[in-house]
Amino acid sequence: MMRVAVFISGGGSNMVALLDDMAREGHAAVPAVVLANRADAGGLVHAAERGVPTVVVDHRPYGADRAGFECAIEAALKPFAPDMICLAGFMRILTAGFMENWAGSMINIHPSLLPKYKGLHTHARALEAGDVLHGCTVHEVTAALDDGPILGQAQIDVRPDDTPETLAARVLVQEHRLYPAVLRRFASGDRTPLILQS
Ligand code: GRF
């Protein structure tokens, strides 16, 4: 079984979707640990409720020392021996060194149809551009921000009365479909892109 570490910073709704799917039959992965960079990340409670170990590595004491923060992350992960990492709303930028350590074994979900709208405020940017299609992407993490081979995308139609908030809510529903479906395939060795229509 592939042992998965899930990294979160907030509410962890994607993490919950991943954990709940791994608990279902026929999955090639099991949750090893949930790691948060904030002790108040809401998702920690949901992980604990599901019997998944949690660890907190607070980034703040490290200041600009990203490598020091990442050393602490590696040390915290070690006892749980994860084979791969799923970033799920983890709001810290990782260094190239960390990403090299996990090359081919770290994936992320991003709320846009990459390569469009890397970075933040993706829903507002899609609206400003007048896009009629929007959605989310799961991709392998490489040294460039929100880049790396695409493993899956889910699309939604943009409605004329959409706001960044309504779009975010509908994209999140798709994130919860897409991420577990991609992890299932990835854990069984299938990296061909999965395209979901709403
Ligand atoms: C999601 O929209 C994810 O794509 C983004 O951060 C949000 C995390 O939500 N990068 P949650 O913590 O999984 O609820």
Fold and architecture overview:
The chain has 2 domains: 1-102, Rossmann fold, CATH 3.40.50; 107-198, Rossmann fold (3-Layer(aba) Sandwich). By secondary structure, it is α/β, with parallel strands linked by helices. It has an 8-stranded mixed beta sheet with strand order 3-2-1-4-5-6-7-8, sandwiched between helices. It is built from 6 helices and 8 strands; from the N terminus they run E-H-E-H-E-H-E-H-E-H-E-E-H-E. The two termini are 31 Å apart. The longest helix has 24 residues, at 164-187. The mean pLDDT is 96. 5-O-phosphono-beta-D-ribofuranosylamine (GRF) is lined by residues 8, 10-15, 88-89, 109-111, 172, 175. 5-O-phosphono-beta-D-ribofuranosylamine binds at residues 8, 10-15, 88-89, 109-111, 172, 175.
Helix and strand content put the structural class at alpha/beta
- First and last CA, distance: 31 Å
Average pLDDT level: 96
Largest sheet: 8 strands, mixed
Per the principal axes of the C-alpha atoms, what is the gross shape?
A: globular
Work out the strand percent: 15-25%
- As for the number of domains, it is 2
Instruction: Supply the CATH architecture of the largest domain.
Output: 3-Layer(aba) Sandwich
Low-confidence stretches at least 5 residues in length (pLDDT < 50)? Answer: none
User: What's the name of the CATH homologous superfamily of the largest domain?
Assistant: Formyl transferase, N-terminal domain
Ligand list:
5-O-phosphono-beta-D-ribofuranosylamine
Order of helices and strands: EHEHEHEHEHEEHE
What is the percent of helical residues? 25-40%
Number of strands: 8
What quaternary form is this? single chain
Tell me the Rg in angstroms: 16 Å
DSSP summary: helix tally: 6
CATH fold annotation of the largest domain:
Rossmann fold
Strand order of the largest sheet: 3-2-1-4-5-6-7-8
Q: Which class of the largest domain in CATH terms?
A: Alpha Beta
